[in-house]
Amino acid sequence: MEPAQTLKRLLEENTAKVGIVGLGYVGLPLLLEFVEHGFDVLGFDIDARKVDALSRGESYIRYISADRIRQPFCQSGKAAATTDFSRISEVDAILICVPTPLNKYREPDLSYVEKTAHAIAPHLRAGQLVVLESTTYPGTTDEVLVPILRAGSKLKIGDELFVAYSPEREDPGNREFSTGRIPKVVGGTDEHSRDLAVALYEKVVCRVVPVSSTRVAEATKLLENIFRSVNIA
Length: 233
Known about the structure:
The protein is of the alpha/beta class. It has helices at residues 3-12, 27-36, 48-55, 66-76, 111-120, 140-153, 191-201, 214-232; strands at residues 17-21, 40-44, 79-82, 93-96, 128-132, 161-165, 184-188, 208-210.
């Protein structure tokens, strides 16, 4: 069976294992959403304090209760957290939720994205899906992420390894519009990648909106942020 078909079957059967890289205010709620929809999830973070807290069943985000952490991490075993990025080979879908702050020149700082890509690339295997969720400028997925993953993994993008972009739309602490109730835009580097990312997110969010490319998906996030910024101002 082809890698894309194998992964699609795992997603349809809820037997795919999901990896979340970056366990902050975007990554942790997303991890819990997948767990609560029946998936096994492995979280990755460079901050050992976060990993240790989750392993003890403790929450470090104010609006996430310790009970929501304790159940999957300490009782059911549906979730685990680690600082060991070699374990990326254990998962089927990898969602990158790392920060993209502005540098001192008010330009996007992609160092977290680049470091994450370099950290996971040697451990990738055929049949995995990698989705970038971090807010960034159009072209980042194709021009920054893909070359690092291709060089580090030696896998063929769109045939053996699948890459997509789906911008995070988290509204921290909003009880009415939690992670699963906010529609997701998804763009892939190719048709297989887009379709697999759609199949993944359809399992946990109310609506998935596929678009023609990663650049279009990246642009939608910037337009949304501009709209919100103007209206808040």
